[in-house]
Amino acid sequence: MFKFGLKLWSINDNYVKDALRLFNEGVYQYIELYVKPGSYEKFIGLWKNLPIPYVIHAPHFRDGMNLAKRENEAKNLTLIQEAQRFADQLKADKLIVHPGIAGDIKETARQLKLINDKRILIENKPYYALDDNLVCNGTTPEEIKLVMDEAGVGLCLDIGHAACSARAHSVYYLDYLKQFMMLAPKMFHLADGDVNNLTDDHRHIGEGNFDFRQILAIIHDNAMVTIEVNKSSKENLNDFIKDVKMIKAIKGVA
Protein backbone atom coordinates (compact mmCIF):
# COMPACT_ATOMS: atom_id res chain seq x y z
CA MET A 1 0.00 0.00 0.00
CA PHE A 2 0.99 3.67 -0.18
CA LYS A 3 2.66 5.78 2.47
CA PHE A 4 0.00 8.42 3.09
CA GLY A 5 0.77 12.04 3.80
CA LEU A 6 -1.38 14.58 5.64
CA LYS A 7 -1.18 18.09 4.16
CA LEU A 8 -1.05 20.86 6.76
CA TRP A 9 0.05 24.51 6.87
CA SER A 10 2.84 25.55 9.22
CA ILE A 11 0.31 27.71 11.13
CA ASN A 12 -2.22 24.86 11.60
CA ASP A 13 -1.78 24.39 15.35
CA ASN A 14 -5.52 23.65 15.45
CA TYR A 15 -4.95 20.21 13.90
CA VAL A 16 -1.95 19.09 15.97
CA LYS A 17 -3.83 16.97 18.52
CA ASP A 18 -5.79 15.07 15.86
CA ALA A 19 -2.74 14.78 13.62
CA LEU A 20 -0.72 13.12 16.38
CA ARG A 21 -3.54 10.74 17.23
CA LEU A 22 -4.03 9.64 13.62
CA PHE A 23 -0.29 9.16 13.12
CA ASN A 24 -0.11 6.96 16.21
CA GLU A 25 -3.07 4.96 14.88
CA GLY A 26 -1.27 4.39 11.59
CA VAL A 27 -3.74 6.34 9.44
CA TYR A 28 -0.87 8.17 7.71
CA GLN A 29 2.92 8.05 7.68
CA TYR A 30 4.14 11.64 7.25
CA ILE A 31 3.04 15.29 7.29
CA GLU A 32 3.55 17.48 4.26
CA LEU A 33 3.95 20.92 5.80
CA TYR A 34 3.31 24.01 3.66
CA VAL A 35 5.39 26.92 4.92
CA LYS A 36 3.46 30.13 5.43
CA PRO A 37 5.96 33.00 5.20
CA GLY A 38 7.09 34.38 8.53
CA SER A 39 5.88 31.39 10.57
CA TYR A 40 9.22 29.82 11.51
CA GLU A 41 9.93 31.50 14.83
CA LYS A 42 6.45 30.97 16.25
CA PHE A 43 5.69 27.48 14.99
CA ILE A 44 8.89 25.48 14.40
CA GLY A 45 8.96 24.27 18.02
CA LEU A 46 5.41 22.95 17.74
CA TRP A 47 6.20 20.73 14.75
CA LYS A 48 9.63 19.73 15.98
CA ASN A 49 8.08 18.26 19.11
CA LEU A 50 5.98 15.79 17.12
CA PRO A 51 7.55 12.36 16.43
CA ILE A 52 6.39 12.45 12.81
CA PRO A 53 8.39 12.45 9.53
CA TYR A 54 7.98 15.54 7.35
CA VAL A 55 7.99 16.70 3.76
CA ILE A 56 8.24 20.48 3.37
CA HIS A 57 6.36 22.52 0.77
CA ALA A 58 7.79 25.96 -0.01
CA PRO A 59 5.50 29.00 -0.42
CA HIS A 60 3.90 29.45 -3.83
CA PHE A 61 2.59 32.30 -6.00
CA ARG A 62 -0.16 33.38 -3.61
CA ASP A 63 2.44 33.83 -0.86
CA GLY A 64 4.83 35.81 -3.04
CA MET A 65 7.14 33.15 -4.47
CA ASN A 66 7.46 33.02 -8.27
CA LEU A 67 10.54 31.25 -9.56
CA ALA A 68 9.60 32.01 -13.18
CA LYS A 69 10.28 35.75 -12.78
CA ARG A 70 13.87 37.05 -12.64
CA GLU A 71 12.74 40.19 -10.81
CA ASN A 72 11.44 37.97 -7.99
CA GLU A 73 14.82 36.33 -7.36
CA ALA A 74 15.70 38.14 -4.13
CA LYS A 75 12.28 37.53 -2.59
CA ASN A 76 12.29 33.92 -3.80
CA LEU A 77 15.61 33.29 -2.08
CA THR A 78 14.31 34.73 1.19
CA LEU A 79 11.19 32.57 1.06
CA ILE A 80 13.01 29.37 0.10
CA GLN A 81 15.52 29.94 2.89
CA GLU A 82 12.74 29.87 5.48
CA ALA A 83 11.40 26.64 3.93
CA GLN A 84 14.93 25.20 4.06
CA ARG A 85 15.13 26.09 7.76
CA PHE A 86 11.93 24.13 8.34
CA ALA A 87 13.36 21.22 6.36
CA ASP A 88 16.62 21.34 8.32
CA GLN A 89 14.98 21.41 11.74
CA LEU A 90 12.37 18.76 10.87
CA LYS A 91 14.92 16.54 9.09
CA ALA A 92 12.88 16.51 5.89
CA ASP A 93 14.61 15.08 2.83
CA LYS A 94 12.04 16.47 0.38
CA LEU A 95 11.25 20.12 -0.32
CA ILE A 96 8.49 20.79 -2.86
CA VAL A 97 8.42 23.94 -4.97
CA HIS A 98 6.09 25.29 -7.65
CA PRO A 99 7.60 26.31 -11.02
CA GLY A 100 6.00 29.76 -11.04
CA ILE A 101 3.39 31.66 -13.03
CA ALA A 102 3.36 33.96 -16.07
CA GLY A 103 7.07 33.75 -16.62
CA ASP A 104 9.84 31.68 -18.19
CA ILE A 105 10.40 28.01 -17.36
CA LYS A 106 14.10 28.46 -18.13
CA GLU A 107 14.21 31.12 -15.42
CA THR A 108 12.68 28.62 -13.03
CA ALA A 109 15.45 26.17 -13.86
CA ARG A 110 18.11 28.87 -13.45
CA GLN A 111 16.91 29.91 -10.01
CA LEU A 112 16.57 26.34 -8.79
CA LYS A 113 20.10 25.61 -10.00
CA LEU A 114 21.25 28.68 -8.05
CA ILE A 115 19.45 27.47 -4.90
CA ASN A 116 21.16 24.09 -5.38
CA ASP A 117 19.28 22.00 -2.83
CA LYS A 118 19.12 18.28 -3.64
CA ARG A 119 16.00 17.92 -1.51
CA ILE A 120 13.95 19.95 -3.99
CA LEU A 121 11.11 18.37 -5.94
CA ILE A 122 9.42 20.40 -8.68
CA GLU A 123 5.63 20.09 -8.76
CA ASN A 124 3.77 20.06 -12.09
CA LYS A 125 1.01 22.64 -12.48
CA PRO A 126 -2.30 23.11 -14.33
CA TYR A 127 -2.13 25.26 -17.45
CA TYR A 128 -4.34 27.98 -15.92
CA ALA A 129 -3.80 29.40 -12.46
CA LEU A 130 -6.68 30.14 -10.10
CA ASP A 131 -5.68 33.81 -10.19
CA ASP A 132 -6.90 35.96 -13.10
CA ASN A 133 -6.52 33.17 -15.68
CA LEU A 134 -2.75 33.54 -15.57
CA VAL A 135 -0.78 30.77 -17.30
CA CYS A 136 1.36 28.54 -15.11
CA ASN A 137 4.83 27.30 -15.87
CA GLY A 138 5.71 23.63 -15.60
CA THR A 139 2.44 22.27 -16.98
CA THR A 140 3.82 19.72 -19.44
CA PRO A 141 6.16 16.73 -19.10
CA GLU A 142 8.58 18.54 -21.40
CA GLU A 143 8.77 21.66 -19.22
CA ILE A 144 9.16 19.62 -16.05
CA LYS A 145 11.91 17.51 -17.62
CA LEU A 146 13.75 20.68 -18.63
CA VAL A 147 13.77 21.89 -15.02
CA MET A 148 14.75 18.48 -13.69
CA ASP A 149 17.64 18.18 -16.13
CA GLU A 150 18.91 21.75 -15.76
CA ALA A 151 18.57 22.09 -11.98
CA GLY A 152 19.12 18.50 -10.89
CA VAL A 153 15.83 18.24 -8.98
CA GLY A 154 13.20 15.52 -8.65
CA LEU A 155 9.45 15.50 -9.32
CA CYS A 156 6.35 15.59 -7.14
CA LEU A 157 3.58 14.50 -9.51
CA ASP A 158 0.26 16.22 -8.77
CA ILE A 159 -2.49 14.06 -10.28
CA GLY A 160 -5.14 16.79 -10.31
CA HIS A 161 -2.82 19.35 -11.85
CA ALA A 162 -1.86 16.90 -14.60
CA ALA A 163 -5.53 16.25 -15.39
CA CYS A 164 -6.25 19.99 -15.68
CA SER A 165 -3.23 20.51 -17.92
CA ALA A 166 -4.26 17.55 -20.08
CA ARG A 167 -7.65 19.18 -20.59
CA ALA A 168 -6.01 22.46 -21.63
CA HIS A 169 -3.73 20.66 -24.08
CA SER A 170 -6.51 18.38 -25.42
CA VAL A 171 -4.77 15.21 -24.25
CA TYR A 172 -6.48 12.28 -22.49
CA TYR A 173 -5.54 12.70 -18.84
CA LEU A 174 -4.55 9.09 -18.17
CA ASP A 175 -2.18 9.17 -21.15
CA TYR A 176 -0.78 12.44 -19.81
CA LEU A 177 -0.18 10.87 -16.40
CA LYS A 178 1.74 8.03 -18.02
CA GLN A 179 3.99 10.58 -19.73
CA PHE A 180 4.74 12.20 -16.36
CA MET A 181 5.40 8.78 -14.84
CA MET A 182 8.30 8.37 -17.26
CA LEU A 183 10.03 11.12 -15.25
CA ALA A 184 10.13 8.83 -12.18
CA PRO A 185 8.26 10.94 -9.59
CA LYS A 186 9.59 10.77 -6.05
CA MET A 187 6.12 11.32 -4.55
CA PHE A 188 2.54 12.27 -5.45
CA HIS A 189 -0.30 14.66 -4.64
CA LEU A 190 -3.74 13.11 -4.84
CA ALA A 191 -7.25 14.57 -4.89
CA ASP A 192 -10.42 14.03 -6.88
CA GLY A 193 -11.62 16.43 -9.55
CA ASP A 194 -13.48 16.91 -12.82
CA VAL A 195 -11.64 15.78 -15.95
CA ASN A 196 -13.45 18.53 -17.88
CA ASN A 197 -12.15 21.34 -15.64
CA LEU A 198 -9.20 23.58 -16.47
CA THR A 199 -8.51 24.41 -12.81
CA ASP A 200 -7.99 22.12 -9.83
CA ASP A 201 -10.52 22.16 -6.99
CA HIS A 202 -9.08 19.53 -4.61
CA ARG A 203 -12.23 17.47 -4.08
CA HIS A 204 -12.54 14.61 -1.63
CA ILE A 205 -12.03 11.15 -3.10
CA GLY A 206 -15.30 10.03 -4.72
CA GLU A 207 -16.66 13.55 -5.21
CA GLY A 208 -15.28 13.92 -8.75
CA ASN A 209 -15.06 11.79 -11.87
CA PHE A 210 -11.40 10.73 -11.87
CA ASP A 211 -10.97 7.03 -12.67
CA PHE A 212 -9.11 6.10 -9.51
CA ARG A 213 -8.88 2.41 -10.32
CA GLN A 214 -6.67 3.29 -13.27
CA ILE A 215 -4.91 6.19 -11.54
CA LEU A 216 -3.95 4.16 -8.48
CA ALA A 217 -2.75 1.32 -10.70
CA ILE A 218 -0.20 3.71 -12.20
CA ILE A 219 1.27 4.60 -8.79
CA HIS A 220 3.68 2.00 -7.44
CA ASP A 221 3.25 0.35 -4.04
CA ASN A 222 4.97 2.08 -1.10
CA ALA A 223 4.87 5.41 -2.95
CA MET A 224 4.54 8.55 -0.84
CA VAL A 225 1.08 9.97 -1.57
CA THR A 226 -0.08 13.22 0.02
CA ILE A 227 -3.86 13.55 0.06
CA GLU A 228 -4.31 17.17 -0.90
CA VAL A 229 -7.99 18.01 -0.49
CA ASN A 230 -9.95 20.85 1.08
CA LYS A 231 -10.68 20.33 4.76
CA SER A 232 -14.28 20.43 5.94
CA SER A 233 -13.52 21.19 9.58
CA LYS A 234 -11.11 23.39 11.52
CA GLU A 235 -11.45 21.16 14.58
CA ASN A 236 -10.83 17.62 13.30
CA LEU A 237 -9.44 15.57 10.41
CA ASN A 238 -12.38 13.20 9.97
CA ASP A 239 -12.62 13.94 6.25
CA PHE A 240 -8.97 12.94 5.82
CA ILE A 241 -9.70 9.58 7.44
CA LYS A 242 -12.54 9.02 4.96
CA ASP A 243 -10.29 9.86 2.00
CA VAL A 244 -7.67 7.35 3.15
CA LYS A 245 -10.35 4.69 3.57
CA MET A 246 -11.73 5.42 0.11
CA ILE A 247 -8.31 4.97 -1.50
CA LYS A 248 -7.69 1.74 0.40
CA ALA A 249 -11.11 0.42 -0.63
CA ILE A 250 -10.38 1.14 -4.30
CA LYS A 251 -7.03 -0.63 -3.92
CA GLY A 252 -8.73 -3.53 -2.15
CA VAL A 253 -6.74 -3.04 1.05
CA ALA A 254 -8.37 -3.40 4.46
Report on this model:
- With 254 residues, the protein is α/β, with parallel strands linked by helices.
- The protein has one domain: TIM Barrel, CATH 3.20.20.
- It is 38% helix and 14% strand.
- The chain is built from nine helices and eight strands.
- It has helices at 16-24, 40-48, 73-89, 105-115, 141-151, 159-168, 173-181, 212-218, 238-251, and strands at residues 3-9, 30-34, 54-57, 95-97, 120-123, 154-158, 187-190, 224-227.
- An eight-stranded parallel beta barrel has the order 1-2-3-4-5-6-7-8, surrounded by four helices.
- α4 (105-115) runs parallel beside α5.
- It starts with a strand and ends with a helix.
Short description:
GO terms for molecular function: endonuclease activity. It contains nine helices and eight strands.
Mean pLDDT: 96
Strand order, biggest sheet?
A: 1-2-3-4-5-6-7-8
The CATH homologous superfamily name equals Divalent-metal-dependent TIM barrel enzymes
CATH topology tier name: TIM Barrel
Query: Strand tally, please?
Result: 8
Which CATH top level class fits? Alpha Beta
**How many domains is the backbone divided into?**
1
Helix and strand topology:
Elements: E1 3-9, H1 16-24, E2 30-34, H2 40-48, E3 54-57, H3 73-89, E4 95-97, H4 105-115, E5 120-123, H5 141-151, E6 154-158, H6 159-168, H7 173-181, E7 187-190, H8 212-218, E8 224-227, H9 238-251
Parallel strand pairs: 1-2, 1-8, 2-3, 3-4, 4-5, 5-6, 6-7, 7-8
Please supply descriptive tags for the structure shown above.
eight-stranded parallel barrel; 254 residues; single chain; 14% strand; alpha/beta; TIM Barrel
